[in-house]
Prior knowledge:
The protein is an all-alpha fold. The chain is about 85% helix and about 0% strand. It is built from four helices and no strands. It has helices at about 10-30, 35-45, 50-65, 65-95. Helix 1 packs antiparallel against helix 2, helix 1 runs antiparallel to helix 3 (about 50-65) and helix 3 (about 50-65) packs across helix 4 (about 65-95). It starts with 9 loop residues before the first helix and ends with a helix. The model has no long low-confidence stretch (mean pLDDT about 90).
Amino acid sequence: MKKQFQNWTLFFVAGIIAIIAALIASVILMTGVSAADGLFGMYILFSLIPLLLVMIIDRILVWKFGNKNVNKVQFSILLLIVLLWMVRFVVNLVI
């Protein structure tokens, strides 16, 4: 059982969760009665294209460099994003 989940990375798991959530949300929106909701559902579907590209690149990098190295880089990217959010929060408090 452990062998199956050995090559999973942060972006891969987040991508799978995002794809499932986006598909559910877009189906709910597109089956509504409002035209604006239907268009937003289509917009969500089109936003899956960059997400799929990131997941494909993730799988290529895992194949080439290994799971541990790719996860280290992805966690550092995540920490950078969190740091930038914290800086933005502090700057918004000051201004």
